[in-house]
TrEMBL record:
<dbReference type="GO" id="GO:0000164">
    <property type="term" value="C:protein phosphatase type 1 complex"/>
</dbReference>
<keyword id="KW-0119">Carbohydrate metabolism</keyword>
<dbReference type="GO" id="GO:2001069">
    <property type="term" value="F:glycogen binding"/>
</dbReference>
<dbReference type="Pfam" id="PF03370">
    <property type="entry name" value="CBM_21"/>
</dbReference>
<dbReference type="InterPro" id="IPR038175">
    <property type="entry name" value="CBM21_dom_sf"/>
</dbReference>
<dbReference type="GO" id="GO:0005979">
    <property type="term" value="P:regulation of glycogen biosynthetic process"/>
</dbReference>
<protein>
    <recommendedName>
        <fullName>Protein phosphatase 1 regulatory subunit</fullName>
    </recommendedName>
</protein>
<dbReference type="InterPro" id="IPR005036">
    <property type="entry name" value="CBM21_dom"/>
</dbReference>
<dbReference type="GO" id="GO:0008157">
    <property type="term" value="F:protein phosphatase 1 binding"/>
</dbReference>
<keyword id="KW-0321">Glycogen metabolism</keyword>
<dbReference type="GO" id="GO:0005977">
    <property type="term" value="P:glycogen metabolic process"/>
</dbReference>
<dbReference type="InterPro" id="IPR050782">
    <property type="entry name" value="PP1_regulatory_subunit_3"/>
</dbReference>
<feature type="domain" description="CBM21">
    <location>
        <begin position="147"/>
        <end position="255"/>
    </location>
</feature>
<feature type="region of interest" description="Disordered">
    <location>
        <begin position="54"/>
        <end position="86"/>
    </location>
</feature>
<dbReference type="InterPro" id="IPR017434">
    <property type="entry name" value="Pase-1_reg-su_3B/C/D_met"/>
</dbReference>
Length: 297
């Protein structure tokens, strides 16, 4: 016969209570403790049921604070720094500079050989100027003769140094320590004793020989207008007495020799760097051996 059956599927006590007779069996409602639903059914606007989980919403990676920081406009300069703008005319300079180009704009500039030589300083050599050569040997080179001359004559030229770049003569004089007051000078002529000039020598502190000999230094400038010969002698004066050293009456002479400037060796020029014949790579690396009058391509 027809029967109405309601069944609740759940985890709990058995559904049937009582005897085993099916006719007497009644379905008893199972009282279950309230449980948290895993799914919360919600009815959408269109009438269908929609299951939504209780999973917490995803947190965005950008916080509102970061959005505020990024939304703030950034200034190119710091708040504490202030820049001041000034123009050239405020400083007395021109606002514009005009340069005239004589070559076409689509062609690279052409460098002449003279310009390359001036930039690389290949063909420019300073003028050596006059060169002076002494006609005598340095007196101190022969120490025995120098010491004998000093003992017998109380004065002797020790050495002379020619400074060609400065056009001057420097040297030292040794005198015998015969008195405390000493006057030492050099007498020089540049025109074969038509005129003469005296240059005083200054005292130079000595070492252990100070008790026997004193040293004096002198410096003589050479004028640009000279006769090509310099002659000099030294004098030691003390207590009204003079002692002279004139190189045995021949004087100490220096001759001027004008050395002509040496011309640079000729440079071989090549148009093709792959066929250039040079002695060393450094010579080729200077770019002096290539013809650069035309364009670089």
């Amino acid at each position: 016969m027809p029967t109405d059956l309601d069944m609740l599927l759940s985890a709990g006590p058995p559904l049937f209570s009582g005897g085993s007779n099916v006719s007497e069996c009644r379905l008893s409602a199972c009282v279950l403790p309230p449980q948290r639903a895993l799914f919360n059914p919600r009815i959408a606007k269109n009438g269908f049921r929609r299951a939504s989980t209780n999973v917490p919403p995803i947190k965005p990676c950008m916080s509102p604070r970061d959005e505020e920081i990024q939304s703030e406009p950034t200034s190119p300069t710091g708040r504490g720094k202030q820049r001041r703008v000034s123009f050239a005319d405020d400083r007395g300079l021109a606002l514009t500079e005009v340069r005239v180009m004589v070559e076409p704009s689509d062609c690279p500039p052409r460098w002449s050989d003279e310009f390359v030589a001036r930039i690389t300083r290949a063909d420019v050599q300073p003028d050596p100027g006059p060169t002076w050569e002494a006609t005598f040997t340095q007196p101190a080179s022969d120490y025995l003769t120098f010491r004998h001359q000093l003992e017998s004559n109380c004065v002797c030229l020790e050495n002379v140094i020619v400074r060609n770049q400065e056009n001057s003569l420097t040297g030292t004089i040794k005198v015998k320590n015969v008195s405390f007051e000493k006057e030492v000078f050099v007498r020089v002529t540049f025109d074969a004793w038509k005129t003469q000039q005296d240059y005083a020598a200054s005292y130079v502190p000595n070492g252990h020989l100070a008790a026997f000999f004193d040293t004096f230094a002198f410096s003589v400038p050479i004028p640009s207008q000279h006769g090509g010969t310099v002659e000099m002698c030294v004098c030691f004066r003390h207590n009204g007495t003079e002692h002279w050293d004139s190189n045995g009456g021949k004087n100490y002479r220096l001759l001027c020799k004008n050395v002509p400037p040496q011309a640079p060796p000729p440079v071989r020029r090549f148009t093709d760097p792959l066929r250039a014949e040079v002695d060393s790579w450094t010579e080729f690396a200077s770019w002096r051996n290539l013809i650069t009058e035309g364009p670089y391509w």
